[in-house]
Amino acid sequence: MTPEEKKAIIEKATEAAIKFQVRDDVCARSCMAGLATQFDFIPKEMVTASASLAGGCGSASGSCGAYCAGLLALGLQRNATIEEELENPAVFERCAAAFTEYRERFKAEMGTIMCPKIHEKVYGRAYQLDNPADQEAFLTMPGHREKCGEVVGVAARIAAEMLVEGMEE
Description:
Helix content is 72%, strand content 0%. The protein is an all-alpha fold. The chain has one domain (3-167). α1 (3-24) packs antiparallel against α9 (144-167) and α2 runs parallel beside α4 (65-78). It is globular and about 50 Å long.
């Protein structure tokens, strides 16, 4: 694969993820759906299931849903099966290296993986999405979908970069 082809895949996945976020406002699913447009090993059921991770995993203000979706996509590509790990426990270290790299790259850009801390960076204050008043304020603020789209774009881009790298291994 040429560098131009790699770049095109990454850009298309990232742009699609941002568009899904602006349209649907479901960060985790938007990230996964954007990645699925370019990586055919991601099944539609994974896109559907990833919606549960939105809003800091189940709207619980935990880890960023888009970040978690990127991790799942990497896991689909890179993680060993349970049987492979039982045969060779050291294989888990290879898998762990990928999710550790993804986490550190995301944190380098966003400063954290935690949804409320990302809110502070992007919106100037944290929102607790398991609090109905905070959730309403968050979801109705002007520019909310677009700003979350930027975060979704970061998660999708980093995951796409790593998925492209994984295709070559």
